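Review box. Two proteins, two foldings.
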Amino acid sequence: MPNVDDLARPSYAPVITRFAPSPTGYLHIGGARTALFNWLYARGRGGKFLLRIEDTDRARHTEAAVEAILDGLAWLGIDWDEDPVSQFSRRDRHVEIAYQLLDSDGAYRCYLTPEELDAARDKAKADGIRFESPWREADPASAPKDAAFAVRFKAPRDGATKIVDAVQGNVSFPNNALDDLIILRSNGEPTYNLAVVVDDHDMAITHIIRGDDHLNNAARQQQIYEALGWAAPIFAHVPLIHGPDGAKLSKRHGALGVEAYRDMGYLADGLSNYLLRLGWAHGNDEIIPRDKALEWFDLSGVNKAPARLDLDKLNHINAYYISALEDDVFLEKAKPFLENPGIDLDADQLQRFERAASFLKSRCSTLNDISAAAEFLFLTRPLVVEGKAAKPLKKDGALDMLREAASVLDDDVLWSAPEALENRLQALAEEKQVGFGAIGAPLRAALTGGRPSPSIGEVLYSLGPAETQARIRDQLS
């Protein structure tokens, strides 16, 4: 297979890709990956990335659906050049080209009624041959006067239509398997394959990167390009995303809109990195920042086998990006995901949250994990002690150790770092000739009530001296 760069337009022509979603109400995760691949390919080569909304189905079209797609792209950091193109607004241009094909004998008027069409298709199927309208070779003068007609493309009967695909390689379609598709319906409406060819040509698209469920369409579109004498773009058909079980991706697998992943606490960088690796590879690299993605992405790295959605891997990648956030950025993003986001934190709670930020990041795969990870910070006093961590308080000597801990922690110098606090407790354990757990366990129970929490030094540092001593006093009393 030729290298895709050998297939490209002349060097003076910029790379221009497009993303052409139907406005279904949200940006599907598979569509988001397609958009990302197109964006990276164009931007990484100094080219243009364009949007076209395929909104010819007016019964389903709403502006809210279009906005949902645009918002999803913007959240992922995918920008576009020029205003999005409405396919519906270009209807007159599509009709013009259909009649151009009629005039050049590349198409013909078909007057078959629905009943006649069904009968002709059934007969062709029974005979094991390609369906072909009898109007293909009929004398136009024999057409019924003022009757409705569809315009059919006059597809070649013999030979094969060949696609040189930048992902799939050389793909050949026998022409006797491709019938004369309708390009203009009897109501005057253009059909998908004609509209796509006209739009991609007029938008000067150089590379069409899309799901391999469009591979059959590529053969039909190639024939239309050839009939019009237009140069076809480079095709690159990417295998679809499957569920973990290998079946076609569905909502039960997680085939949601990107806004659902955003609302579940995934970062745009984390989801983008995961989508990039879902069917494309650069060596063994898992974490690929956006600047490296722009530098490295090429079509030769796209796998031919379908990718499988793996939420554990998504969580792993997202956790990396959360841990890499600056503390103040993490706090801003995490606040809406606290259990009660409608209430404002008071000054003391906010200070605890800020002090704990660097420790909480490593405990979150998604921002939604912050509620459980930070629960110990916002507990109402006196604490209700829960779980195994409560048991040391009931043992002889546990309260004595708690008193000792409170005493040695009453030193402002220690509160500059978690390590200083933990080292002081370790020294206390050595003085008392007990294991560290004899001190750490009752102290953790008193401070967290048995809730999940980071190391004891980080717990102390996060709560601060005043809240720490108050919680200890509650347990001692």
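Next protein.
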Amino acid sequence: MAYGALRTPHFYVFDEERVLVYTGRAVDNPKDTSKSTVNDLERALQELLDGKNISIPVTNPIGCNVKWEGKDKHWMPADACDLIWNK
């Protein structure tokens, strides 16, 4: 099964029943982690381990575009645009 990674890296967290509970970035400033104010991946993992609902289950992955065979290097699937531009 493909999960539709948009960027590298693009993280996915699954619960014990293999249900996707988080997808997106690790931190809000991966180029300079000293300036990061949010660790989205760590928050999601901690909430999962604590038995809580994931408070923010989707974030905008930050990184280089995944390259798609036969498409322009900046192409993304149309249904990915909401994730990238509206979050």
